[in-house]
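User: My advisor asked me to double-check a structure prediction for Isocitrate dehydrogenase [NAD] regulatory subunit 1, mitochondrial-like before group meeting. I don't want to rely on an old file, so could you generate it fresh from this sequence?
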Amino acid sequence: MAARSAFPIICRLASPYRSRFQLSPFNLFSDARSVTYMPRPGDGAPRAVTLIPGDGIGPLVTNAVEQVMEALHAPVYFERYDVHGNMKQVPREVMESIFKNKVCLKGGLMTPMGGGVSSLNVQLRKELDLYASLVNCFNFPGLLTRHENVDIAVIRENTEGEYSGLEHEVIPGVVESLKVITKFSSERIAKYAFEYAYLNNRKKVTAVHKANIMKLADGLFLESCREVATQYPIIQYNEVIVDNCCMQLVSKPEQFDVMVTPNLYGNLVANTAAGLAGGTGLMPGGNVGADHAIFEQGASAGNVGNEKIVEQKKANPVALLLSSAMMLRHLQFPSFADRLENAVKRVIMEDKCRTKDLGGNCTTQDVVDAVIAFLD
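Assistant: Sure, here is a fresh prediction for Isocitrate dehydrogenase [NAD] regulatory subunit 1, mitochondrial-like from the sequence you gave:
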């Protein structure tokens, strides 16, 4: 299959799917290309990727990716490490592997509630400075949902805000938790959002905030977004208060294109948008910084600890398969990414093999076999 045009290769995390380019059921999955992808010498060398299977359904869905990558003959190989959410910190050898490879694929890591154990997901993002989270939420052809024409890219600041981890007990029964917003982090996430919109032919960026109440913190975030917006006059810019945003999402999600948010709001918005477009088992995502990237299921893996799904081996691997396609494009292997995305979407459109969350009764392995059968 011909490779994608030049612009997704430039974009660090190119959108895996843009519904506005659909024409017919038979060319849904192949963009018209006027520019042939010309790789640099050596770009086809296999790349090492750090693999963290994670907890719960994580090993199931990462194994699905490994099988499909092998069948695809993708030029990547995995360095596997066992990391679990109840660890106090990410082992040093794992961090060294990511520093070396610069790319990681991971399943969900559980975060214990309370008890002073910090989230390893947050640790990874901070230590690697993965300041931008991208979750793509979009309708799949052949999958009936309440809303049509949903095609939203949620870009979330990943390193500060309510996730700064600065909290302490002032006196017994009184806890103080600090929300940190900086000009530096707000500007760079805003710039990333506008770059993404520009490179992916998106028309509008919406900043989500609560500046009517948190006038200084969210006010600084909005000020940064407004300044960056002036550098991209061809991109429409608007703002929405986070509570109104949630209402607008569930009533008219098609009005949103690219959304840029502080840390906590982005988590809520991405999961809401994912639910509207078909569920968390479908939506791909990744976290990226200047030097490193981690690809994982886009919206929160609410079933990561669902023992019944693990025992029955019926976890939906689609989200991580599409995240791995994003990873392939990030590694500059666009034709492999196209083939993988097309196969996954054909399985869903055919409606013969779906997991329970999509109304079917198939196992993870059933979906893997169906995807491999559609690889061309």
